[in-house]
């Protein structure tokens, strides 16, 4: 039922301090404690998204049992406080996720017919809409303004006033927003093959419809999808997610666990960072942390974040592929050629 | 526009006040004969008159930049300048870029430093409290702290107001314009904000005088006097040093009455400081950003493929991390850079502590301070 | 604030079953289907019929075999590995591998028939928006000058440049050449090309260049419908390869179809009427013709909306079906093709 545990191949994970992982607590659990939650044979078992070391088995079994128990009980609707004691017992977070679980990621491409490329992305309750226009000719003013950085991309972020709990008047000069736009622009700029489009510009407009944590990460993912939809050549997907730590900055808390994909409530209480990687590799495009955290926590958080980016890449890739398969089915685009060694097949198009 | 004028007036007044303290404004001839920018020995010898005149020039420079601003604004509002006329700084040439990159692959930095070596960092304080000037190579930053009593924000009645304002004026480079924040300026101010303000280095609750009614508003003005790369690290040291050096007037609260004492009446008190975060910036070179350099100069910054700023205090707490795009760099290298930064932060931290101590000793002539402090305690 | 608990992993379980870090395997597995184009040997994998058939996505390895050359939409890493840079299908021309994007902006190629719009008048040329990464240039020397088809341009022409085309004018032209940076040079030195009037403009956005629906490059980009429904005048349809479409009332001896009918010996006559070529005045268009132009517009819009191929065959089939559809519904007057009718039309045309 469970995927066999594999050793980690990720070079980063090898240097990860696994003392920080939640398994530690469960290794102390006696078998009788676990048998309280004996899994009914028919219950669905969800495997974790990452295979880690052997002692994880125990932890996984326990949590998936817990998960299925919770999903059938009315207690699921009760909000669990973000209390470390609760956490370490159930190993579930406020929204019922485990430490290494992403929220539901839903994405669509080609949502705006008038644009060259567009996407809609939900990471949990964070909802972002992205529209790509271009490449188009650079205006004379743009050409002057960006001659030094010679940037192909132009990123605009608008955050809807209704997007968060408190209604906020959107401000044009919010430095936090311009910093985010800068980060997205600078990261994607290096991924996009800019040399193909001299004297051109591609404008990326991001609209935030709802905020529930991991905002910068969602912006990254939505922009990447829209760029792929617009057919802009890029070396790989740039995907992002957040990771946090259950430790507070003050305590040298050895029992702290890394967490993946934080929601708003967790972001407010826990230190977290946003990681964006290129093509789900270990290479980090952007790394942003705005909270105080012990430097020793960083390694674990980064490893979990990089791993989360890999998962996000798989999900985004699936969105693109599904769309492509649909188009082939409809006959909108021709099937691709097989790259064989010497066989002569008809080439359907040039 | 209005804000600019008000600021101008404030500065003007401060300048006059400053001159009044000094006795007479520095004669132009004196300035030119004693070039303080290249006279390092005199600029940091605390007791010599050179430091005073040097400081006056610093203020005068800032003042002159403000003088220019109203004209500039007028010309902007009335005749919109075409973008073509925008003054731009000459970019580094393609050939030089290539040279720099090749040199780095040979493990050579153009100024002969090691990859993990800072340029000489020096810190000086003004005669007034809360003024710090940092020199990092040829990068020069001046930070000035001021405080006034105001009404706190309605949503935070128990907190004082703490603000960091950055200014990159055309005196640094023609590419910077007054009142039009460039990307560099926005990023610099955000980094300082995250490093110092968000990390809670200053206890803003201690700035509250009377809940919901009166509080201190502490403002740090960061002025870049010359830009030769790595503004962030230098600016951060300047801000932290200036805030720790600053003394706000002592106050007492009786019922609804807040009394602010002058320096003559009561010895001013330092701010309630919790921890000192410092920024360390790495810049990356090479196809995959595999080479990491500490403290890049302006030339090197123009060639870099990515940069990574991490803010830490000496207890090993990360306050902020910013790798805002650029070429993707291996995560392990980033971790190594963070580890390197912790060492560097300890060094900077010690340096700042030592300089602050020296300055305090210099001011404390014959134990006068201790006496005054004791007097304060008796009175309160 | 109540906390909404999200069912974990209910919709899309994020799973990396294969954590093999040595290759780009995650992208290959992501599609669900076993479409493995990765050639780590000399054998070829047959494509499976379902799932992500034939779609490659950015960063995916197409081949590691050094015999292939990289074309558009690919990048070369480590001297022999070819990776895709766009999402689309692989196409192969001898030893050249390229990936054509599912959708991309129009990239000009020599010989393309394009519909464009003048956006800037410069000293000796016009800048034309052709929906490409850069604006195209139309030099004064590349248009038909009035009063003789093969005449040298004079200074008078330069001064009167706005009399030929001014900002906002639409024109149909051919891509004559490409500049080093990818910018296109246009020409209208044929009676087929020139200023457009008496009609309706339509942009099939983001689908130009023949990738993924949109206007497909074909033998005939322009044609005339001699006797449209309702007894109106003949109608010309111009499908610019760049995704811009123009539908106009046919004026005898003029416009896109002129040269196919007027022989070379009629040049004099053509030259004589050339003064009229740069007119911006619309002729009187009767109601029947206007209605059919609008119907054709509806057909093209449906084709674009449902991601179907746009070429002469599809447009004409669509037009006939639309006429039939209107008749069936017993409302000949009703030419509206939105909503359910659009659905029906698209279904008929896509053969499903």
Structural class determined from secondary elements of chain B:
alpha+beta
Poorly predicted tracts of residues of chain B: 1-8, 18-86
**Average pLDDT metric of chain A:** 73
Strand content of chain B: 15-25%
The CATH topology name of the largest domain in chain B reads Ribosomal Protein S5, domain 2
The CATH superfamily label of the largest domain in chain B reads GHMP Kinase, N-terminal domain
Report the major sheet of chain B: 6 strands, mixed
| Counted beta strands of chain A | 10
Say how many strands of chain B there are: 15
Description of the structure:
Chain B: Belongs to the RNase PH family. Chain B: Residues 32-42 have a biased composition (Basic and acidic residues). Chain B: Its main location: cytoplasm. Chain B: Residues 26-51, 358-380 are annotated as: Disordered. Chain B: It is found in: Cytoplasm; Nucleus, Nucleolus. Chain C: InterPro entries: Exosome_cplx_N_dom, Exosome_RNA_bind1/RRP40/RRP4, KH_dom_type_1_sf, NA-bd_OB-fold, S1_RRP4. The complex is a heterotrimer of chains A (350), B (380) and C (352). Chain A is α+β, with helices and mostly antiparallel strands. Helix content of chain A is 34%, strand content 20%. Chain A has helices spanning 11-14, 23-27, 31-35, 56-72, 84-90, 140-145, 175-191, 215-229, 264-269, 295-330, and strands spanning 105-109, 117-123, 126-137, 153-159, 200-210, 238-245, 258-260, 272-278, 283-289, 293-294. In chain A, strands 1-2-3-5-4 form a five-stranded mixed beta sheet, covered by helices on one side. Chain A has a four-stranded antiparallel beta sheet with strand order 7-6-8-9, sandwiched between helices. The longest helix of chain A has 36 residues, at 295-330. The radius of gyration of chain A is 22 Å and the shape is globular. Chain B is α+β, with helices and mostly antiparallel strands and 380 residues long. Chain B folds into two domains: 1-76; 96-379, 2-Layer Sandwich (Ribosomal Protein S5, domain 2). Chain B has ten helices and 15 strands. Chain B has helices spanning 2-22, 28-33, 40-44, 49-78, 94-105, 183-198, 231-245, 298-303, 331-363, 368-379, and strands at residues 121-125, 131-136, 139-150, 161-167, 208-210, 214-226, 247-248, 251-254, 257-260, 269-270, 278-285, 291-294, 306-312, 317-323, 329-330. In chain C, the strands form five sheets. In chain C, strands 8, 9, 10, 11, 12 and 13 form a six-stranded antiparallel beta sheet that branches. A four-stranded mixed beta sheet of chain C has the order 1-6-7-3, with no helix packed on it. Chain C has a four-stranded antiparallel beta sheet with strand order 14-18-17-16, with helices on one face. Chain C is built from nine helices and 19 strands. Helix content of chain C is 22%, strand content 24%. Chain C folds into two domains: 25-101, RNA polymerase II/Efflux pump adaptor protein, barrel-sandwich hybrid domain (OB fold (Dihydrolipoamide Acetyltransferase, E2P), Beta Barrel); 113-350, OB fold (Dihydrolipoamide Acetyltransferase, E2P). In chain C, 45% of the residues are buried. The interface between A and B is large, with 48 and 44 residues. β9 of chain A pairs antiparallel with β15 (329-330) of chain B.
